[in-house]
Amino acid sequence: xxxxxxxxxxxxxxxxxxxxxxxxxxxxxxxxxxxxxxxxxxxxxxxxxxxxxxxxxxxxxxxxxxxxxxxxxxxxxxxxxxxxxxxxxxxxxxxxxxxxxxxxxxxxxxxxxxxxxxxxxxxxxxxxxx
Length: 130
What we know:
The chain contains 3 helices and 5 strands. By secondary structure, it is of the alpha+beta class. The longest helix is centred in the middle third of the chain and has 23 residues, at 35-57.
């Protein structure tokens, strides 16, 4: 999958892929999320897709279900060193499925990618003027 990243002005950096534009910004303008916030949000929303799919496959109601994500940073370097996903379910949600919800969330492709990180190849090329 190819993504085109461009710079529309100010502190804004946008990503374009599959007909979508994901806008980011730094705190100066605060008109869009910061790139790192989108990265963190991708973890919780990916887990959410798997939890949602699990419930839909079993015709379980999703009303009242939500995931609360806590991101803990190492005070020495500011890097995230622990991410906690808390799947909150209403009292009416069948207890027999609680563990299965956790297993579903753990299937998240973003989480699995972080557990087995890719290599990065960063290079510069001279682009043709269009």
